[in-house]
Design brief:
Elements: H1 2-12, H2 14-27, H3 33-45, H4 48-55, H5 60-77, H6 79-83, H7 88-103, H8 106-109, H9 112-156, E1 160-163, E2 166-172, H10 177-193, E3 198-205, H11 211-226, E4 230-234, H12 238-247, E5 255-257, H13 260-270
Helix pairs in contact: 1-4, 2-7, 4-5, 7-9, 10-11
Length: about 280
């Protein structure tokens, strides 16, 4: 009986509840009013209040269907708020307004026993969907972090065409397995894209070149060789040279130089170019 009367209560007052809910949302200050209102407009259009009343049905299947439909609606429309960086607390706060409206209606207020039951049911409903909203936000944050990380990684190993058939990849910071794979990938695709015959890999900004990093560099150079280009590693310091020697690096496969200036001169020579001084005559 409780469920039937609660369902009827929401069904009979849908318009009033909707108007009061909008008033409460608009009276609550938020810097994100536009995306919040767009979200609530969409879920109301999807029948949120109708599904809310079905949640109080005595028919268990109807209750389950109501929950499923609201959840699907949330997964479609909550991204309006996540994409606008609306704090999750602002979205959830708005749902507590409708909870207050329903519990403050005359009929349940005049029947304390019924009010207690209604509070329990309503709290269970809103607790479940608060969790759904948090899950959607968490998934969105994870995707944003992964996207940002991917963008940062792309920028951390750029291949820059500097002259015809010559490209440069400056590497700064530590090199781990994931970044090493990205470096090799960017070298290969970039060399093909820019038709590079010589690729200069500048490791001047790499703080430490240990055995693992040296092996990554060798593999990248071998990969470049396989597509018909040559890799020149510049920025070789004495300690780096010692590490490479200890690995037994095949120097015929890998050209190493101490500076970018030397690397560019060798690259120009290998591509049939040269640096020529142009002297301007006096006036």
């Amino acid at each position: 009986m409780f469920r039937k009367t609660s369902q009827q209560l929401i069904d009979d007052n849908q318009d009033a509840i909707s108007k009061l809910w909008e008033q409460k949302r608009l009276s609550h200050f938020s810097s994100y009013r536009q995306p919040i209102e767009a979200f609530f407009h969409n879920i109301l259009k999807d029948g949120f209040l109708r599904h809310l009343s079905d949640f109080f049905s005595e028919d268990e299947e109807m209750r389950t269907q109501a929950m499923d439909r609201i959840e699907k609606s949330f997964y479609v429309h909550v991204p309006i708020c996540t994409e606008a960086d609306v704090p999750v607390s602002d979205v959830i706060q708005s749902f507590y307004f409708i909870r207050e409206i329903i519990l403050e209606m005359d009929e349940p207020q005049q029947n304390p026993t019924r009010l207690i039951d209604l509070v329990k049911e309503a709290d269970g409903f809103f607790f479940h969907f608060n969790k759904v909203i948090h899950d959607i936000y968490a998934s969105s944050w994870k995707n944003k972090i992964l996207a940002h990380r991917s963008a940062i990684m792309e920028l951390s190993a750029p291949l820059i065409p500097v002259l015809e058939n010559i490209a440069v990849m400056p590497i700064i910071g530590a090199i781990d397995t994931e970044r090493a794979e990205l470096i090799t990938q960017n070298l290969l695709y970039g060399a093909i894209k820019y038709e590079s015959k010589v690729v200069l890999v500048d490791i001047t900004g790499v703080a430490e070149v240990n055995t693992m990093v040296a092996q990554y560099i060798i593999k990248a150079a071998e990969a470049i060789h396989l597509i018909g280009a040559e890799c020149i590693v510049v920025g070789i310091r004495p300690e780096i040279a010692q590490t490479m020697i200890s690995l037994g690096v095949d120097m015929d496969m890998l050209t190493t130089l101490s500076s970018m200036d030397q690397g560019l001169r060798v690259a120009l020579s290998k591509t049939g170019k040269e640096i020529t001084d142009i002297h301007k005559g006096g006036i």
